[in-house]
Structures are given as C-alpha cells and as structure tokens.
Predict the 3D structure of the following.
Amino acid sequence: MITLNKIKHHYGEKVLYDGLDATITSRDHIGLVGSNGSGKTTLLKILMGEIEANHGSIEKSEYVNIGYLPQDGIQTSGRTLFKEAETAFGDILKLQDKLAKAEEVMLEMDTNTEEYYDLIDLMGEWEQRLEEYQPDRIKSKIERILTGIGFELSDMDRDTGEFSGGWQMRIALAKLLLKSPSLIILDEPTNHLDIRSQSWVENYLKNYQGALIVISHDKAFLDTVSNKTFELKLGALNIYKGNYSHYLNESQKKLEVLRKAFANQQKEIRETKDFINKFRSNVKKASLVQSRIKQLEKLQLITIPKEEKKIFFRFPKPPPSSAKVITIKELHKAYGSNIVFNGLNLRIDNGDRIAVVGVNGAGKSTLARIMADQEPYQSGTVEIGINTVISYFAQSQAEDLNPNNSVLEEVEIAAAKSGNQEANPRSALGALLFSGDAALKKNHVLSGGEKNRVALCKMLMQSANCLILDEPTNHLDLKSKAVLQDAINAFEGTVILVSHDRSFLDGVVNKVLEVSKGSMRMLTCNVSEYIQRIESEMETK
C-alpha cells in the first residue's frame, strides 16, 4: 500500500533518519514509538506529503487516502455538532443531491431521447455507489460514534463553537472515523479522551478494517490497537511484528543475543591477537600468523547500539503524616450557574493511592485544585490533616514556567520558596537529563516533554507527604512514564492522581475516585478493574 525507500532527513547537523525502509500494508495497525525528539511526528508529516525528506522516496498506491488527527489545534464553529459530523460523508451527500436534481430534470425530459436513457444509466451508477455507502445508516453511524467518544444525544443540535479545545479534538476524531480512510494516522489521540471514551475508541480501532498508524505514550492503548511496532531509535527504524509489549520483549531478547555475540567476538579477537603476538617471530608459523591477520582484517565487527539517556529521580522522603490527610464535608462549588459539586463529602487517608477519573468537565481538576488550596469554593469545609504537607502538580504547570528564566533559575527559585535545606537543584536537574549547558537553556525554547520534566523537578525541591498530580504524564514518553511510576511507588506518602492513562495508573493506584456530574464514589480497585465494572453495569441496565 505504502513503501518507504531509503528515507533520510536531518535538521541542521541533527540526523533524524539515516535511510529508513518500510512497507505499510492495508491491514497493518502500527504503533510508532521512540523517545521524544526521535522524529515520530516528522515521519508522519513526510508520509502525508507535508514535509519532503532530504533523500529517498515514498511509493503510494493510487487508491490510498489518508486521514490524519494532529495533537491539537483544530477548531470548528457555525454548524451543529450533527451537521459538522455529517460533513465526513461529503461524497455521499453530493451523490444524494445529484440524484435529487436528476429526478427533477427527468420529469421535464422527453422519454424517447437518448439523453433520457443516459441519465437513467448514470443515476443507476450513483444509486449503486450510495448502496455501498449505506446512506440510510448515516444518522445511526454519526450518533454511535459521537456518543462513543463522550458526547450526549442532547449535544447534537449545539453549535460546535460552544465546545472547548478538548471536545473540538473529539469532533475531529469522530469525523475521521466516519470517513473510514484506507490509512488513519493518529498523533496522541488519547490526550483529549477520558477513561470511558478511550476504552470505546480502543475497541473501535482494534476492529478497524483499514490501516492505522498511532503515536501514543499510552502503553495499554498501543497494546490494544496495534499488531506491528515501528521503533525510531538513533536514526534507524526497527520493525517488530506485534504490539508494544511484544516489541519490548523482542527488543530485549534481540539486545541480549547481540551482547552475547559481541562478547564471543571480542573473545575470538583477543585469542587471535594473542596467537599473532605469540608466533609473530616464529618462521614456521608465519603462514598461520598471516592467515590470522587477514582473518582479523575481514572480520565484520559487532557493535552494541548506544543506550539513549534515561531520566531517574525520587521524591524527597516525606515527613510523618497524620491518619487523616484531607477531609471534605458538604462542599459546594459552582462557576456561575454551572454547579460542579453540591454537598460533596470525601475522606483521604494516609497511604491512599487514588486515581481520579471521570468525563471531561466533571470537575476532576477543580477538585485537585481545591484540595491543593489553589481554588476557592462557595461553602463547606476542606480540612487538611495536622501534619499534612501537600505538593501539587498542576495540569498547566509546564506552561506556567517563566519563559525568561533558565531551567536552573526556575528550579533554584522553587527550592528557595520551599525552605528545604536538603534540596539540590543541580543534582535533581542532572537526574532529569538537564546536566551541564542543558540546565542553562531558557524555558521558552524547551519542548513539551522538557517543560514537564522541569515542572517535576520543581516538585522535588519540596519535602511533602501528599502528592496531588494533575495529568503529570502529558508530553512524557513511555520510558519517562515508567520512571515516574517507579518514583511514585517508592514514595511512602499519599498520592492523588488525575489522569486518563490506564497503564500508568494501574501500576500505582489502589483506589479509584469516580467524579461525575452530581455524584462521586470511591472504589477499591485499579483502573482496568474499574472499566470492567463500568462495562458490566452498563450491560445490566
């Protein structure tokens, strides 16, 4: 379907690709993985023709049409939600309009003319094409996909301009799924989805009949939807037949085999050199020595690929905590006429590891800000435990960095504010890959992933026993997420996590707090178990 031939690309002196070769077939569901900066999004743009590679070519079958969902930046208005989704069927609607006009023309045509029968033949072709599209099912398709990704039936007549940025991306995703292109390309599609809608999208894409390429930092999502993995690493494209977990296992096995082969070759080289040095002056062994020298010269040396740098950090040791960490009673919070919480009661105990989940707009981030004393409320009480010390990571924290500060200055200011005498900004930044001159870069030149790492580093300056983290994994690659998981698991205090990343949450939480409009409930389980429970509850309704 699509073939990449010897693709090379660079930005200045940085080589992104050094001769990539790959074939994408009509049923490939590909997870495109690699560390931040490895060139994943750039490769997608080359595939779509938005960027021309410095060298190489792309062969594409004529029938191939590509649908692309970027990370953000899509905005629509002026149509109702249903009418906007209906534009995905533009070709069908045009055919329906042509047929309607042709029927009107036929009424005035002479039935004995050749033109009349030509029009009948043409209308027959149009009707056959419409049958293939099943236009009578358009309405149900639109409603099924829109409700699947989180919209209500009552939203169908709302102007799309009323929806926020995250919901705008859901509209774009719905239109893409409705178009059913031969290749769907998705760049971080789960960023704007809640737990329930993400589960629906996973199942839809898993059964999608066309080809699929997905960039995602969500391991569970990749495992569900992909059957092949493309890994971009150090300028090369490594291809594995299997999902992300299979790729991890196979790449590790491949590396172990390579290390053994390298060790055996090094042993062989040492033994050969020892033989040459031992018998170099022995005339009787001269021919053997020359043979071994030639053997060494012809030897193709095995090299072990360089390991990409990994981040490492631990949260500071927490001070002793009281049994009750946060207690909320009869909380009322509203934005104008929009009531978020009305009579909310909640208790968080020492050692709780809680995932806060729910649909977008239900109040997850609002609750996190209230618990962190960053958001006012109208009535009720929020009691912080006597010894509770809270450290808060805001969803927008990476964007709130002072653009004029260097990375080091930003963290040093946070250390000074915390009053933690043991805080070491330089050491913490080094663990998060900001060593040497990298620590002197200005915040405004940082990538999204780098900004997130600076924001996390600021948290390490304060010793706390309760962490409240709102979407801390945004812009972090899969390996960095695993490091953050390890750091949270090693932390001995209380953790409250607002996130939609199921595999990340499953590795660290023991409770799920479900926030929905007008209600809330705490469940003792991980997020995968919670989803199973929700699906079971829906089946019994």
